[in-house]
Amino acid sequence: MINQTAIVILNWNGKQFLEQFLPTVIRFSKGAQVVVADNASTDDSISYLKENFPEIRLIQNESNGGFAKGYNDALKHIDSEFYVLLNSDVEVTENWLNPLLDIMEDPKIAACQPKVKSHATQSEFEHAGAAGGYLDVNYHPFCRGRIFNSVEKDLGQYDHPTEVFWATGACLLIRSKLFHVSGGFDEDFFAHMEEIDLCWRLKRANYKIFVVPKSTVYHVGGGTLPYSSPRKTYLNFRNSLFMITKNHEGILFPKMVWRGILDGMAAATFLLKGEFKQFGAVFNSHIAYYGKMRTFLRKRKALKKWQTEFNSTGHFKGNILWNYYGKGVKEFSKLNMRLFRK
User: Fold this and answer.
1) Sign of torsion, CA 128 171 18 117?
2) CB 110 within 8 A of CB 208
3) pTM score of the predicted model
4) Is 60 exceeded by the pLDDT of residue 224?
5) 205 closest CA partner among 317, 108, 105, 104
6) How far is 289 from 243, CA to CA, in rounded Å?
7) What are phi and psi of 316, to 5 degrees?
8) Tell me, what's the pLDDT at 308?
9) What pLDDT does residue 223 have?
């Protein structure tokens, strides 16, 4: 299946990452089509690619519409059974692709990810994806190997492939047909959490999402926005509200009120710590959400036509905030496994 696969790297002013990681992608992905989709870079990424990698396909988007629109625009021009959406700051390893393609022999699996480890500290998981993603009862995301800012060392404890709730956009293999039929990434997100939203929609159509730890990649992380950036905080809080409004099963209003209270507590914590820009990011995320609420209520209504049977595997019925801050649980394996839906 490797010759039916397109590896698509979205680039925006990332020449240094292309120099560092693109040669390895080409060397360890023989048989697959390698594509760089450029999001209107203002550095010399384009000239560098044309001069040094004339064999790869280059797609030039007209504007920088963010991660979501950038991929949506580029993927319209790529005819392949499978897409691998790969961040430019990811180092792949030998034989990284075959294990991912092997698991896709199951037609009910819509997408999968490898084990994602830190490029800087290679004994540890990386924040974005780690060994597979989950959502708690209030839709806070966390991973096998990473809960909030606590990242575990990789001791082989999560080396078995398993069904999860979401797979990371840092390295996401997905069936192209399902990507397009489900509507692709939601462009209102711009960047952050759009892959969780997409996986959630696929699970609402009874598809599965998997992590395949036999495949390993190393992620720099924070290449475009540092993890501590107020801009990242804003996008994560806003997009989480977008995502919940679209996808929450059951009555929406009580869930959004409760989530607003939790976000208010997070904002107050930032304020007490003197992190005023972070406080402003949370506040502004809610203002932006209210401005888009009607749009997302319409999307919620439209998505009900897409849903068949909701595959809730990977949804944690517990409260990850209480586990982490109240009970001091910092490792995924110490969570109550009976609270994960299967």
Assistant:
1) positive
2) yes
3) 0.95
4) no
5) 108
6) 11
7) -90, 120
8) 84
9) 53
How many C-beta atoms lie closer than 10 Å to residue 333's C-beta? 11
Map out the domains of the chain as residue ranges.
2-131+153-219, 230-308
- Beta strands 146-147 and 208-219, pairing class: unpaired
CA angle 174/62/179 to nearest 5° reads 15
Is 256 strand, coil or helix?
helix
On the 0-12 / 13-18 / 19+ scale of CB atoms within 10 A, 89 is buried
Distance CA 227, CA 338 (A): 31
Single-letter code of the amino acid located at 207: Y
Dig out the tokens for 269 from the structure: 């914590």
Query: What pLDDT, on a 0 to 100 scale, did the predictor assign at position 101?
Result: 97
Among the residue ranges 24-33, 100-109, 167-176, 224-233, the one predicted with the least confidence is 224-233
The CATH code belonging to domain 2-131+153-219 is 3.90.550.10
Q: 């509507």: which residue's tokens? A: 183
